[in-house]
Amino acid sequence: MKHRNAVTWNSMISGYVHRREIVKARQLFDEMPQRDIVSWNLIVSGYFSCRGSRFIEEGRKLFELMPQRDCVSWNTVISGYAKNGRMDQALKLFNAMPERNVVSSNAVITGFLLNGDVDLAVGFFKTMPEHDSASLSALISGLVGNGELDMAAGILHEFGGDDGGKDNLVHAYNTLIAGYGQRGHVEEARRLFDEIPDDRGGGEKDQRRFRRNVVSWNSMMMSYVKAGDIVSARELFDRMVKRDTCSWNTLISGYVQISNMDEASKLFREMPSPDVLSWNSIVCGFAQNGNLNLARYFFEKMPHKNLISWNTMIAGYVKNEDYKGAVRLFSQMQLEGERPDKHTLSSVISVCTGLVDLYLGKQIHQLVTKIVLPDSPINNSLITMYSRCGSILDACTVFNERKLYKDVITWNAMIGGYASHGLAAEALELFKLMKRLKIHPTYITFISVLNACAHAGLVEEGRIQFKSMVTDYGIEPRVEHFASLVDILGRQGQLKEAMDVINTMPFKPDKAVWGALLSACRVHNNVELAIVAADALIRLEPESSAPYVLLYNMYANLRQWEDAERVRVLMEEKNVKKQAGYSWVD
């Protein structure tokens, strides 16, 4: 530009401030031939929007250098101090203001609420000489954010009438309705919704009054959808005079949530102008319900795809165990120039785990290091992937690289990896370290620990860990724990004790429990208990050939040919087919 004025400079500075590129904003500010008060306010707000004492101090220094100040200047600094937790300095500046307005007071209220000082915020609000809808909305929003919903409702009813019937009051009501809905208090949300006059009036005068707007209806609908009450949500939707895209998306997502894809797709077709969120909801719904063909059909028809669209479709393939389809779509995603994020990569790591493809897993790991900063979920997925693919050393490397923070899932993944590789000593040693570091184990931790004991034949250690789980950590044993305990005892030939464990279980044994016992009976040639276990398995899974085959092999090993033949005939009578074996060479 050959000719620039203050507005030109301020526009450019505002752009940099908005992007928090404070160095470039300051450079332009210093180069300005003539600055006005807007220029000063912009640069001061830029410094206060950046986190860190250095920026705040520089912002205050510039504020002191201002040739003249207006209310915006003072409010900017007060708000900056408040948002950075420096309420003492914010209040000191507020009290020093030559002339205050409602915005100044709102900045202080917001500061108190951001710092969790609910009582101070309410007290300050009540002492304000005047407050408008913005003040009330700021207080209500802050109270909702701090979980003080009933206090917010009390304030709304006490001071809402002071607003003179202005339409802006509805914003405070909408905020509180949404707050109640997010926490599952649907009745309270509906009570507030009913307090707002209906918006189906007419005339210019009616339009200015305090009435429901489309956000009111949407907030109430979202409350019902979150609570799973799609009937009430649909009733509101049908009563709405004016709907926006959010109204349609809310109801569509509600039907997707309860897996009613017929109604969801019907609404989608009726929707005047679906946005990318609408398309993503439909794709997600069909994928979650196992209909990958329809999910892919809608995915391909999308006029504009975003990263969430790709992630949703890839995750759908993973959920339905179509791992090759997920890999093909991931390749297409890269070819079309869409950059994957950590959610994409986490799904693709799960693909590698499902395919047991170590080569692909290492490629994805390399991609992770180049594209994203690995977080706990990604590292946990990598540990599981390497363990399942047989590379326990790589799993251990990923685990050890997490020096600063390992959550319980990380520990579980590594202990489980050691256990599945038969490295019981390493698994138990890692479990001891976990306890020394005061990381509370979960029921999944103990499943891995008991499996490690089973692989190593550590019967007494298994008993100790099972007892410790209940007495030391208060974890109720699940069927998986009993299956592991039966496996531990059965492998060592203690079949009678294993049967006693099954008989004293607080719930019915599942196929894993009976399968562990039957396998142990097969190893130790205990025909009597094998028949009991096989009968139980046949009742649980009549179409499975496993119990018949194990029983047949046991009789054959003992040369009890008549009994073996009887098992084979029984299979034929019940039309049970033996699954063909196959080898997998990588």
TrEMBL record:
The keyword Hydrolase applies. SUPFAM superfamilies: TPR-like. Gene3D superfamilies: Tetratricopeptide repeat domain. InterPro entries: E_motif, PPR_At4g14850-like_plant, PPR_rpt, TPR-like_helical_dom_sf. Signal peptide: none annotated. GO terms for biological process: RNA modification. It comes from Vigna unguiculata. PPR repeats lie at residues 5-39, 70-104, 169-199, 213-247, 275-305, 306-340, 407-441. Keywords: Endonuclease, Hydrolase, Nuclease, Repeat. This is Structure-specific endonuclease subunit SLX1. It comes from the Eukaryota. Belongs to the PPR family. PCMP-E subfamily. The keyword Hydrolase applies. GO terms for molecular function: endonuclease activity; RNA binding. PANTHER family: PENTATRICOPEPTIDE REPEAT-CONTAINING PROTEIN.
